[in-house]
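Reply to dn_fold:

You asked what the input looked like. This is it:
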Amino acid sequence: MEFGLSEEQVLLQDSVRRYLADNAPLDRVRAFAEQADDSDIWSGLCALGIGGLVIDEAHGGVGLSYLDAALVAETLGYAATPAPFLSTAILAPSALQAASAHTDLLPDIAAGTLRIGAALAESNGARQDAGVRSNAGKLSGKALFAMGAPADRYLVVDTQRRLHLVDAGAASLSIAALPNIDATRPLVELRLDGTPAELVADDPDVLRQVLVRGRTMLAADTLGAAQFMLDAAVAYAKEREQFNRPIASFQAVKHMCAEMAANLEPCRSMVWYAAHTIDETPSEAELMALHSKAHTSEVGKFVAKTATEVHGGMGFTDLVGLHYWFKRIGFNRQILGAPEYLREEAARVQGLAA
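and this is what came back:
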């Protein structure tokens, strides 16, 4: 039995990694943080087929597995890539294909000419007065933390866990930018007032499938971001000298790096298996998505903190830029469910809680 990646999967990761090294280095990430324009990066990724990664070939996509998508998400996280991969390439196609609705949009998504944001935060519990209500094909309310902005359309969940598509240019829709610690992925607030919407799915199971895929990709993204921070800490420790010797020779620093590696490495097989179950053993997919995102979030938080400490005062500077990965890990931890919420949900899935 094969427990490693196939040659094609290794080549997929390598091609995305090389593209990002050339087109999305740290300076490009900094530029995005100032201007929030990722059109060049996303168009290049779509030219590689990333936009249509999980879209069926019949609809203009590549038709690869969710394990392949997780490998791409891991690579994007490693580079702190500013791109609407989660919302446009994963959440939206998952919903449209699972519901067999609006599939005419899939070729444009795969080509990179249609960007779809995702306002699904209220599926984990509404905050304050947030929440969207549906009535006769129109939506009213407020959706917070919508991802993938700016987008042409938004995938919105209502209070009955139904999914809808809303045109970003609708007159009765107002979009406001939200403060966000992760400068690589803007968030917006959607205010809807009788806004026309197209129903995607009225079956809550479609939303469940979408969340499974989204949480798994976030876990993979955190895995990649944490791996970068570990690699950066090790490289810095080998170069930085104190008392005429590299700090990597100090036992305390060795222990810090070893502990990060020991905690992070098991996450890789956990995340890969979670992605594998989506296609191969769907009955396990929900539980694995919950556990992998919860656990990887905790490990990512530890790695982010420890890697920054290895860098000392330099770890807080924009010159090194570690904060982009640190904040990305923090964003991933909270969006689509924090670890505490996900563990409680996992208990319910297993029948251990009401």
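The longest strand covers residues 187-196.
Hope that clears it up.
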